[in-house]
Design brief:
Helices cover about 20% and strands about 40% of the residues. The chain is α+β, with helices and mostly antiparallel strands. Strand 18 and strand 19 form a beta hairpin. Helix 5 packs parallel to helix 8.
């Protein structure tokens, strides 16, 4: 056996501190903990090294683009000089997924209807509620530590770190009723009921410009990079490019224009869904999904019932729909233009209509009309060779690679969860009562 004194002497004879830090920076947390128990020198070195813990944090966040955003957060920037705080932060970071899978989180609540900005609140309009199917918080965008919230006919901007209200554009400022939004840098883009796309400075609320998108109701807007795509209530899809901050110009796309015009079904549907990536574009109406590849229409696919929300990740499309006792309320479709459609349908326990979702490479989160969020691990999904299969969450059956993580019940009973967004460590869910529930899986302040 080696005595404690001999261990200490051996440690002193080993690599210099600078090289030891490099070695420790390439270990996992359990190995770092084992190393610090070796001798006092190593323990003190690990305990006091800012460089070590910053290196471990950087390596963890380098694994995905979304995690890299955490390095830009003030919460992290504020602890840069404290090895102790950096160690605490790293230990919380590596437990996020474990917390997610075990439903271990802290809850914070934002009340959008009661929040004031410069002495003003959102106006509660009975006329709005009579003429729209949705009320309260019904749309959200996460962008650079900002949460842009559509609540009734106003748009609020929240700081996601301080959870304070940064700015608000009231319905009278937008003038024509805005029912969908997107954001590019500090430019807020609003699609209106009378067919305009209006641009505002999100910090000052100043009006920047407007473009006629359609003679009809602009149903949905989506932006990726400098490309903005809009769809109106008749399904006409239009592309726009940011020419400069605060100004968009029409992008002529003959293939897409032709494709949308040859789609046989042309009916007026106020609420359409839209999403796209660099390969696929999907729009919806009623229970139909219209699928495009590189601007070319290739398939219309029917869902079991009316579709309320969609999300594209890679070559997969997640969707939520009305559902009932006999038909599923959600599903994942493999977007293949050259093969027979492959779909995994999902039934939740109560199978209430799914009206919002968040979808990424790991998880699908479904918000329903019962005030519930259903979390599904989709990393190992197995599609049928052809056709459709149905998975019932919580039941012992073939789940085709899906793992049911659990159901969160933090909203009021029967509150419609119209919006659901995620960042690397939180779920934001907004409902018809005007509340946003934040589920924090990092819990750094605890």
């Amino acid at each position: 056996f080696t005595s404690t004194r001999e261990k200490e002497n051996n440690c002193r004879k080993m690599l210099p501190s600078e090289l030891l830090i490099i070695v420790f920076s390439n270990l996992d947390l359990d190995s770092v903990d084992n190393a610090r128990n070796t001798c006092k020198k190593w323990n003190n070195l690990i305990k006091t090294s800012v460089h070590l813990w910053k290196s471990l944090i950087n390596q963890y966040c380098a694994s995905s683009k979304s995690k890299q955003e955490m390095l830009k957060m003030q919460m992290y920037k504020g602890i840069q000089k404290s090895a102790d705080k950096l160690e605490q932060f790293y230990r919380k970071l590596v437990k996020i997924e474990e917390n997610f899978l075990s439903n271990n989180y802290r809850v914070r609540t934002l009340n959008c209807l009661d929040a004031e900005f410069e002495g003003k609140k959102v106006v509660r309009s009975s006329e709005w509620e009579q003429n729209h199917n949705y009320k309260g918080v019904y749309d959200m965008i996460l962008n650079k530590n900002r949460l842009i919230v559509h609540v009734n006919d106003a748009v609020q901007v929240w700081d996601t770190e301080t959870l304070s209200l940064m700015s608000m554009l009231s319905g009278d400022k937008i003038a024509e009723r805005s029912i969908c939004t997107a954001i590019s840098e500090d430019t807020l883009i609003c699609g209106t009921e009378n067919g305009y796309i209006k641009l505002f400075d999100i910090k000052t609320g100043a009006f920047l410009s407007k473009n006629r998108a359609s003679l009809n109701y602009v149903s949905t807007l989506k932006i990726k990079g400098s490309l903005l795509i809009s769809v109106d209530c008749f399904g006409e899809i239009t592309k726009w490019i940011f020419e400069k901050p605060g100004k968009i110009v029409l992008h002529e796309d003959e293939l897409l224009t032709k494709a949308t015009k040859v789609v046989a079904i042309k009916v007026k549907v106020r609420e359409r869904c839209l999403d796209f990536n660099n390969k696929y574009l999907v729009s919806t109406f009623g229970e139909h999904m219209l699928l495009f590849r590189y601007g070319e229409f290739f398939r219309s696919y029917p869902a079991p019932s009316d579709i309320f929300c969609i999300g594209i990740h890679g070559d997969k499309l997640a969707f939520g729909c009305k559902g009932n006792r006999d038909s599923p309320a959600a599903g994942i479709l493999k977007l293949g233009w050259d093969r027979v459609p492959q779909v995994v349908y999902i039934k939740t326990r109560d199978n209430d209509p799914v009206i919002s979702l968040s979808f990424n490479e790991k998880f699908l989160i479904l918000g329903d009309t019962n005030g519930e969020l259903h979390i599904v691990d989709v990393q190992k999904i197995v599609f049928p060779d052809t056709g459709e299969v149905t998975v019932e969450l919580g039941k012992e059956s073939d789940h085709h690679g899906l793992v049911f993580v659990g159901t969160i019940r933090t909203h009021e009973y029967r509150a419609f969860i119209w919006a659901c967004k995620t960042d690397p460590y939180r779920i934001f869910s907004g409902d018809e009562t005007g509340k946003i529930i934040i589920h924090d899986y990092l819990m750094f302040e605890d």
